Amino acid sequence: MTPTELVQERLLSLEDLSRRRCGWRTYSQKTVFTNGVFDLIHPGHLTYLAEAAGLGQRLIVGVNSDESVKRLKGDGRPVMPLAARMQLLAGLFYVDGVIAFDEDTPLELIKALKPDVLVKGGDYTEDTIVGAPEVRSWGGEVEVLTFVDGYSSTGIIERLRG
């Protein structure tokens, strides 16, 4: 498989993801889920995603659609369109799948996927993570990873706009 084909293989629909998730369960592979905008991917994102991947055997990343980002972050965002953000994430060797969602939160996606581990960054607490009660209800874990100081897509965009 070529690198381009590998990236394309990781861009998933909910149907594709559900099918793969069944296969991973068959082999007792722990699935980790995280989500975000991932506009202008930076070293903080890379560190965070690598740590998240280390919590299981499969890492799935949910990405807010362009419409969702506009509602959450305002006009002028995202800087990079959904297809580009997803392709960049799918190109990371420790990411097993990337899926978009249109809602403001990934709750419905989390309920459909039923990950073994739900992960967010240190700018969250377990009480503020969307989907945490649901993940715990089926015996899953909720993890808050250390926030990497000095990196923020919003901060980078503000500096560029000067």
TrEMBL record:
Alphabetical list of Pfam families matching this protein: CTP_transf_like (PF01467)
One of the protein's GO biological processes: carbohydrate metabolic process
Lineage top rank: taxon: Bacteria
Ranges of residues in domain Cytidyltransferase-like: 33-159
Enzyme's top EC category: transferase
Entry annotated with the keyword Magnesium: no
EC number: 2.7.7.70
Catalytic reaction list: D-glycero-beta-D-manno-heptose 1-phosphate + ATP + H(+) = ADP-D-glycero-beta-D-manno-heptose + diphosphate
Molecular function, one GO term: phosphotransferase activity, alcohol group as acceptor
Keywords attached to this entry: ATP-binding, Carbohydrate metabolism, Nucleotide-binding, Nucleotidyltransferase, Transferase
Family matches, as InterPro entries: Archaeal_FAD_synthase, Cyt_trans-like, RfaE_dom_II, Rossmann-like_a/b/a_fold
SUPFAM superfamilies: Nucleotidylyl transferase (SSF52374)
Record protein name field: D-glycero-beta-D-manno-heptose 1-phosphate adenylyltransferase
Species per Swiss-Prot/TrEMBL record: Neolewinella aurantiaca
Record gene name: rfaE2
